[in-house]
């Protein structure tokens, strides 16, 4: 039996062709109950008729969308075992020239989107003393590149959030494993 079999796994950013989509398929192949989410249901339409997936519309930049999606998951399954904060957007250009609105949009998705999920699910996981959170960082947070300053800064924030989350739970005497993925090659929309 696979260690993940029958675990409820919520994955953000599951649009076709991306990392989240591939992760959803992999978790499903291991017997997980996969909640595949995306801003647009059309982007995950290939999963809608597949019984291995519970498909949910979720915009991580919206408090209401996060509350609604997680409430629906808890009503259906009664628990959330794993959250994979995969949703993200790229912002290319010299950071001194990128419009502030584009920087805000990047941070709202990449940083605050992950935080919305973390803050919504941690009380549930802590009460069960069980759960895993996987955050997607980036190697650029460790080795910045020109023209990727906004994206790099947002992913550096994810690394810092992940570290402080881990320390906070260690200090509280609670065990809540958390991981940050820093290096995966992929096409970004």
UniProtKB/TrEMBL annotation:
Superkingdom, natural source: Eukaryota
Annotated keywords: Oxidoreductase
Gene3D superfamilies: NAD(P)-binding Rossmann-like Domain
Keyword Coiled coil: no
Name the record gives this protein: NAD(P)-binding Rossmann-fold superfamily protein
Family: Belongs to the short-chain dehydrogenases/reductases (SDR) family.
GO cellular component, one term: endoplasmic reticulum
Signal peptide (from-to): none
Entries under InterPro entries matching the protein: NAD(P)-bd_dom_sf (IPR036291), Sc_DH/Rdtase_CS (IPR020904), SDR_fam (IPR002347)
Any one GO molecular-function label of the UniProt entry: oxidoreductase activity
